Write the structure tokens for this entry.
Amino acid sequence: MTELILIRRAQRGNRDALEKLVRLYYRKIYQYISFHVESKETAEDLTQETFLKMVKNLPSFVPLTSFSAWLHRIAHNTMVDYLRTVRETGQLDEDALEAGEGAYARTEADAALQTLLDGLPEIQRECILLRYINGLKYQEIADALNLPVSTVKSHVRRGLAAMKKRSEES
């Protein structure tokens, strides 16, 4: 069954189609968010919030852009709202503190990748995550971040070059 058929059925209230859409994108959205927050629990909460927003707004989705880009835009906005609230309130992530040293256990490769990504400007990091972790096409990234495609390509190219240079230095 194609994605568009699933979307149309979910928009008409078909719970099976909605569940399939969630299963199709859950891991990608979770991975995207988990690179931006300190705890597994927070990543899970924000992922759930993203899908609740998806369900609420699904009736208004018009397939002029890809569904993946639309959903990643919701995830991005959800995550940015959360991070802004944490910064403004000075609230610490209790789950992260309980996990030890402010982060949940990641593999060594994830930790190395995170270190390289942390050294990038936020927009380059976002573009690289969406391209290589979530597998979005350049046009989908442009739609999700509301940027021209050429700008997205430039951010990815510059970010990868900076990551390469940083890995060679260490």
Q: What stands out?
A: The longest helix spans residues 67-89. The radius of gyration is 17 Å. Residues 81 and 87 are 10 Å apart (CA to CA).
